# Entry
Amino acid sequence: MTNQDGVWWQTSTGYQIYPRSFCDSNGDGIGDIPGIVSKLDHLRDLGIGFIWLSPVYRSPMADNGYDISDYRDIAPEFGTLGDFDRLVAEAKARGIGIVMDLVVNHSSSDHAWFRAARTSRNVPEHDFYVWRDPAPDGGPPSAHQASFGGSAWNYVPEIGQYYLGHFSAAQPDLNWQNPALRAEIYDMMNWWLDRGIAGFRMDVISLIGKDVDAGIYEEGPYLHGFLQEMHRETLAGRDIVTIGESWSVSRETALLYCGRERAELDMVFQFNHVTAFEDEVFGKFRPKPFDLVRLKTVLFDWQETLAEDGWNSLFLSNHDLPRQVSKYGDDGPHRVASAKMLATVMHLMKGTPFVYQGEEIGMTNAAFTRIDQFRDIETLGKYADQIAAGVTPEDFIRGANENGRDNARTPMQWTDADQAGFTTGAPWIEVNPNHVTINVATDRADPNGIFAHYRRLTDLRRNLPVIVSGRLRPLAKDDSTVFAYLRELGDTRMIVIANFTAAPVDFSVPVDIRGDGSCLIASHAPRSSLGETLALAPFESVAIQLTTAGKP
Ligand code: TEU
Ligand code: CA
# Structure
């Protein structure tokens, strides 16, 4: 298969659902699978091809499902296996596949395997996890810190050993060195694939090849061997899509995961454009100022890396990241224009775009003022660590409001009614008060709304091969106000130009893209020709297909 084949996951747009916050069907304040089924027409209208469903497996929900206690069952608060099968069938009837989240770097500490593993060194499940003896002084075997705060090593007095919880104590790492464990996972994957799902998004997959004793966690020496084995045992020969999440993948290693001849994954979720703006010491809770040239450099470099082989995923938001219109655009007076602009520049690059729930109506960050409003295990764990290190609560909350994960997790805003039409009960996390103006019903009623713009983008992708397969050439790389590029396939040339700022900009149009054409999509008045300069309104974006290009 080559990149030019235009397979379904290359011509489609993905949509991520965070089930807890999407739609509650029974008034318990928690989104659920019947709620998702009731909103499938909204997604069909948006024109997406598949849903990436964040975890719905049985879980004590320490990390909202990224801590699985039974890989072959659905969390009761989300529904039943029957509800899940109905979701797959109802989505399929609307041309939408269901991509499940596969969380196999770790399980929940409530999983039956772990409950057995911690009772004795002599049960087979013991070796399904990563155990080490105490250091000579009785303390943890290494200084490794958990992502969500505290030591990554947790002592179990009954057996006198520590287990590894790279994320938290509630998420013990699975021992991929054990072949019986790997066989259990492949069997489970086949069980879901045989139910008719469209693929997997693989949570922190770059961690499974770790060498703990060497202190190597990310992209360890066993990673690609395991992924190739997984491919042979489960993925090969199936018409599915696989996306591996990795916070460490670089341009140097990307093709090891998704190179066509590798038989591993179809694409990766990479975060180089996100980590570029994190503080080296304090991380995401003390973000660096935004810099458009830096953002473009990262994104354009990835376009180049995966131009001939592999495949890009295109996203600015997900359930771990702030709302994109708040982070990269303007969530005040220019909210609508900037939401459209961000969508345009992301969706028209080469790769598969992912829309995070609520992005299609320009949902914004939460603005919490008290730590008790936050729910996220990462935010609460880091709060404890950073307060202990002398950070003030006010400073911490400022950082959490800017970059914390709860921003993406406030309930989906369906209507202007109480609780935004998300629930008839008390939501598990507060609804953003701006739902009275920002909601699906209001936006969809507006022919110039954000939803209409996204719908146009999904439609263009399905119908214009230059968007799927064209080469990308960056334009005005060093311009700190405009995001612009050219896509080319045969004789077809498409230009995307976007003002990334809240001020008007006069863009000097490069000579070889001046000419006439037709407007494919525009945030403001349609434009169909490019002269010497293009006067762009704040956050204005446009895509033009040139017909007389190169004749200035
Ligand atoms: O995220 C991986 C991950 O590393 C994030 O926790 C990330 O570091 C953090 O948001 C940025 O500070 C995946 C899931 O997407 C996330 O929701 C889970 O909590 C995590 O794995 C553990 O399963
Ligand atoms: Ca519910």
Q: What stands out?
A: The mean pLDDT is 96. Residues 24-26, 28, 30, 32 surround calcium ion (ligand 2) (CB under 6 Å). The chain is about 25% helix and 20% strand.
